[in-house]
Amino acid sequence: MKVQNPNNHTLTDKAFSRFLITSVLGILICITCLCSATWAWFSADTSSGSNTLSSGKFDLDISLTDPNGAPVPLFEQESGVFTCTLEEAVAYTVTLNITGDTTATKGFCTIKVGGDSYQTASIYTEDTTPLVFTLDAAKSGITVTFSPTWGLPASEDVAHGGTLVIGAAK
What we know:
The protein is of the alpha+beta class and about 170 residues long.
């Protein structure tokens, strides 16, 4: 059988069969894709299980000694925040060690005296040496608060081996 098309080309039975099989195969592929997409859409799972989000924890072991090496008592105000009262003209040695339960990789210590706030240099968990500096009180009865903070300090008021003079007139 020969079929005449509008362009005067004849289509043989073999060519017509090939055209018909290709068309049927294309329709089957389209139906398969449509069914697969529909099944995927309705069987998708949007749950993610139980994920826990927690912030970093940065704790310091803070020790304060007088020039004779005697420890100065520190009083814990809240978790990880300590205060003490200093005497005039005494150079105290402050030692800051990272505690074992710290999860943050870096941090610093904020030292508050009245309305003034000072920050130590960065303390990194991979560095096992403690941060040691001298704290010199310019007058007696100064109350100092030590607060460990994770992250990087905005400014470094005291470095390792440095001296911080507090309570002096500005």
